[in-house]
Design goal:
single chain, BirA Bifunctional Protein, domain 2, Rossmann fold, about 40% helix, globular, binds adenosine-5'-triphosphate
Amino acid sequence: NDDQFKKVISHAKEYGYVFQSSEIYDGLSAVYDYAQNGAELKKNIRDYWWKAMVQMNENIVGIDAAIFMHPTTWKASGHVDAFNDPLIDNKDSKKRYRADVLIEDYCAKIEAKIDKEVAKAEKRFGDAFNKEEFVSTNPRVVGYQEKINATLSRMAKSLENEDLADVKALIEELEIADPLTGSRNWTDVKQFNLMFGTKLGASADSAMDLYLRPETAQGIFVNFLNVQKTSRLKIPFGIAQTGKAFRNEIVARQFIFRMREFEQMEMQFFIKPGTQGEWYEHWKETRLKWHLSLGMGADNYRFHDHEKLAHYADAAADIEFKFPFGFKELEGIHSRTDFDLSQHEKFSGKKLQYFDPEENKSYVPYVLETSIGLDRMFLAVFSNSLVEEELENGTTRTVLKLPSVLAPVKAAILPLVKKDGLPEIARQIVEELKWDFNVIYDEKDAVGRRYRRQDANGTPFCITVDHDTLENNTVTIRHRDSMEQERVKIEDLRAIIKQEVDV
Ligand code: ATP
């Protein structure tokens, strides 16, 4: 809900995770900077993905292609002609909105009503409550669901047929108003291209018009044959990449969910034509497993199969995650056929075919793609981890229950007091552990306050050096989630931390 989302945004700022870009100049809309902790969390998510996709798979290799690409790339890929969003302006507020997002938000509000009905009934029926039966038979809920389905399918059809007048009619029929001002005075819906243009070269007449890439995938497609030949991989094989992408999105207050400059983690898997059905299922399942491995709750994920397909796809599904503002796309799995490679063959005049030694013939491979936004994943992890807990003594604590493998700081080393040689021992522990983990030293404030600070920062372990340490070389290790403390030998610390934070 709204309150939770506001807490997420302010916590991200207060604890050095995400700042508004150029804040001293009042910021830049939908552009953000990652701060000291955010950069670590982001790197850890990227590494977790890279390890699962590249390191653990013999037949997937990683590349790092340039952001700038030859401009013909984007003609071939269809982005120059078809990478548009339907926009609508409000005549009174002069604000611009995505028409499809206005309609989706309308449906999300109805969905929230369904959630409310379900919660009410659950309370009333207790253990006897059967959710599936309730949502399929309760007349009010069934009515809501029908309204959502009818609305979304009409929108999908209108967009597919480029019938923008009908999208506008739908907004009017649903009585959707400007979310900021409540005005319903709209202009017509118009298509707007999302690519950022720029120029390459110094002199005005020789400069070349370029685009900042709106997706990383094309860097993989144009390198497909070079990588295949130099790696000598045989189909099926994959090429993975992480990197920045840019889209001139029209957004209102979505924090890092929808940005103008963001990072993608994509993998294109090259397969024999005709096998796309089985690989599509394989990658849907494999990617969901990756998400579940982080332990953020199976109920927070669901698949959404696309009815309306992009121009390049023969099947597509999203993995949706339950963000504070509802279920939204986190990752896409797309069966892209031979669309991209064939287009690049056509536009470049170069053959992009694979010689299959088993079949003894050449063909343009089909492609199965997995595409996830790193920033969106960051928001999923961060928002899901932030909780306020009521403690037995009646106080509350704010704790960021990040999966330990992703936490920016793995352990804080705390001398109980700033004297009696305890700081020196704590520093020595830092010196030993920092070779393997990102750890910090903290001696400021009472130890209870230091624990709270680390809880809010997501640090899985606090290690406290006290007077007993001087006697027997032991310290206490406190676990963030359970707040339990154990007494352990200094020499065992590395193994204890490693067991928790290693994948
Ligand atoms: P959406 O429908 O939310 O605009 P999309 O379907 O256009 O997303 P894709 O082009 O399939 O997204 O991109 C793959 C992934 O990249 C998305 O699942 C999302 O996680 C991420 N992504 C796309 N656009 C943005 C953005 N503007 N800011 C942050 N992440 C993004």
